[in-house]
Hints:
By secondary structure, this protein is of the alpha/beta class. Helices cover 50% and strands 10% of the residues. The strands form two sheets. Strands 1-2-3-4-5 form a five-stranded parallel β-sheet. Strands 6-7-8-9 form a four-stranded parallel β-sheet. Helix 2 packs antiparallel against helix 3. It starts with a helix and ends in a 5-residue tail after the last helix.
Amino acid sequence: MSYFLSLFSYSFSTEQQTSLSFAVQDLYLERQTSETALQSAYQLAGASSFTTSSQNPRLSRALPVSLRTIISSSLSRATQNPHSNFKHHHTPLTMCKTALHGALHALPKCEHHLHIEGSLSPSLLFRLAALNNVPLPDSTLDPSFTSISALEERYLHFTSLNDFLHYYFIGMSVLLTAGDFESLAYEYFVRAHSDGVQHAEIFFDPQAHTHRGVPYKTVLEGLSAAQKRAEEEFGLTSKLILCFLRHMSETDADVAYQEAVSLGHFSNGTIAGIGLDSSEVGFPPEIFREVYAAAKEAGIKRTAHAGEEGDSSYIQKALDICHTERIDHGIRLVDDEVLLKRVAREKTLVTMCPLSNVRLRCVGKVADLPVRRFLDEGVRFSINSDDPAYFGGYILDNYCAVQEAFGLTLAEWKGIAEGAIEGSWCDESRKKALLSKVGEWAEKYEGVA
């Protein structure tokens, strides 16, 4: 399928390529059939004409029989069904209101703060609920579940982190099989690829699934399959980070950790590290000191959410008690001058999530985030999407939001990209390749205002 999608670049704009990629992805996942769906895809993407595969030998070779049987008539229905998957989540790429949008789109990106369960689009949620016979909340009690569009509208009005988490865990309930997790992750990878992501390090929450009776192995089977597809089809490398839910006990976290250890998932590279997420205030990092100590002893990478809604002491404790090598969110770092200078000096990566912070009311607007302060102080940070299906923006949307708020230079973006690569948990050869891509990008866009 990667070769088939790559052909779009010969005749379509970036926005058209994105729409077509998502269209074919939906059809691929639904496993239905129709040759005419291709023409619908072209039309929905804004193309003025369509050349059939029989008239185009290159397209014919790129579309084997196995894929022909997957192309679905559901895309044709998308123009008629107001709740179709295509119409609701295949939105055009965000456009910055600056001359740098093309450069930002092309910038080779690393994403370090992405909850894969948080990439569950409302369209996929409804689709998997129907497929798996999972009842969603009664729409008479919560009108958000009346339709895909109603749920999307509800996501615009989160009042807090806990309000978001309520819907986040409802969404997870539809994920039951390895195929569900593969669909979930592959949908993210397709979008990430279209946004210029070259390497992604992805959080997942095993406890949220095992406590529903979904085996840990099922989750890993699906996510790993999607990772393999993304690397083969897009050249997009990725790592998994096992997160502990901080509203659950340290004992429960250790059970999740030990299962991964027993299967060799840390030693064989299936999982790159551990993290800590969910409700922050009232659940300080030191609760989990023992499982983090075990991970440190085993040489496993460590990160934790800190300084999102909690104060800067959560960051300090994550670093000093849990010995984390990264800080996720970390926007309260600026409240402690000594800690800020320490993080800058030690080159600890801070994984920022601008649109998430606004949507969850941690700040009033993107311009209130400490991006400029971090740049001035030399803090290494990356820009990420967090839970993009819930917060209204994938990684490019976040880059654009930062650019609109701060008006960064190309040199500053180059520095951000290089710092993100250096702070990644991929091997040195991959870092070297990614740094080379950023260097080529800088040369190409030199002189762009």
